[in-house]
Amino acid sequence: MHALGRWVRSLLLVELFEGLALTGRLFFAHKFTIRYPEEHTPKSPRYRGLHALRRYANGEERCIACKLCEAVCPALAITIDSEMREDGTRRTTRYDIDLFKCVYCGLCEEACPVDSIVLTAITDFHFEKRGEQIYTKEMLLAFGDNYEAQIAADRAADAPYR
Amino acid sequence: MGMLHSLVSWWNALPADLQLTIRSIVFIVILIICLVLAVAYMTYAERRVIGFMQVRMGPNRVGPWGLLQPFADVFKLVFKEVVLPTNANRFLFLVAPVISITTALAAWAVIPFSNGVLLSNANAGLLYLLAVSSFGVYGIILAGWASNSRYAFLGAMRSAAQMVAYEIAMGFALVGVLLAGRSLNLNEIVLGQSGNIGHWYAWPLLPLFFVYFISGVAETNRLPFDVAEGESEIVAGFHVEYSGTAFAAFFLAEYANMILVSALATVMFCGGWLSPFQGWQALAASPLGFLTATSFIWFALKICFFLYCFLWFRATFPRYRYDQIMRLGWKVFIPITIVWLVLESIAVVFRIPPWFA
Predict the structure, then answer these.
(1) pLDDT digits (tens, 9 = 90+) for B114-124
(2) B286 touches chain A (CB under 8 A)
(3) How far apart are CA B112 and CA B122, in angstroms?
(4) Cross-chain residue pair A23–B312, CB shorter than 8 Å
(5) Spatial separation of the C-alpha atoms in residues B15 and B65, rounded to whole Å
(6) What is the rounded CA–CA span in Å between residue A160 and residue B56?
(7) Start-to-end CA span in chain A (Å)
(8) Which residues pair with B357 in a beta bridge?
(9) Complex ipTM, two decimals?
(10) Å from A42 to nearest chain B CA?
(11) A33 to chain B: which residues are within 8 Å by CB?
(12) B316 close contact with A: CB closer than 8 A
């Protein structure tokens, strides 16, 4: 009897119609696709993307060339040269990050005593020639200037958990 | 106005044979352009519909809603090189796609698009169709053999066996239509289904209708019967060595065949260009009366529905195992069609109502 029922079911294509009903329903379902350049997936405030160097509100750069980030960097991606400025403070003359070496671990940000080097949420960047992967102090400061609002907001959002 | 008048008189002065030739050529050119466009948008619809069923978008970047995507694909294919494998049989290698596409297009000669609107009102239209669509397998076998590639040859063998098996079931299903319509002329078969939706042959011949459409899916080597391509087993099957326009020709032939099978299912079982609401007086009197009119639009809509079914099947079913395909064709479809043909013959002989009275 059971075998007969199965035979009838297969002859009437019952299971095939069930499958068709499923895909037919999904045809009208809401689509999960994120249309990338126009839409983005949400990012955590802890997201570790492109680096930036921050400034104080008065425009003074935060970095004091303590070289802790250079020392802690596991990939040896950071190169720093420093000298004394006219006002007697120690400042960097060179702050290069090799983005091919960088593993985006965020240890430089952890090490920094003045919150100068940070990892932002920027992910859309690319290089077209050899050598372009070295981001210099000027470029990093420019990113910091352009995205300061977002960087500060991300830091503030994460502050209660630190 | 005078120019139009002189054009008409010039046309009337032409010999009748020449008139017929010119009219046929114009018809053919229009038909082929429409078919190629339909194939182009079929590929787009395929990717969109399957994408939607897999809860994603599908191509939506080239032009508004991705509507120019097929043209981007065509230009890419046309600009690619046609690679001739070193040890391939050059002549057959290049003739195979031509055979495929020729048979796919030639079958359209007897399809009625509207009452009397068809290229050749052949009395043996159904026979012609069966003959021409059987030729399509030569393109595939020759492609697989001429490529001198094991994968291509395996694909060709599989598709040959499969097409032969399903051709029989398909032929038997069409014999049922022939019995019911008492004609081999496709135009008359459609006219035989006049009346409302209940008069369509799909109802008295429901099992044959299913067998026909499933055989049609198998015949065009579409999923779930696409072992001839079987990309997970034999790369791309018979057309693995083809590139550029030669590949595009196979692509065109496959999709033109899909549209052909849909058109045939419409003509044979679903009343062709007839309206499903034909003869419904209440509707005819209402503002929606145009719905009861017979027109080419109904034909196109029905074809679209069947084409959608092709895509729906592809999005839903996994590929059949090869021995299961053979089992389905020989041990299930052929017995079902024969049993139903016997029952139908009895109904026709004794004029059993409601359909055969």
Answers:
(1) 877 777 777 88
(2) no
(3) 11
(4) yes
(5) 49
(6) 38
(7) 68
(8) none
(9) 0.72
(10) 19
(11) 56-57
(12) yes
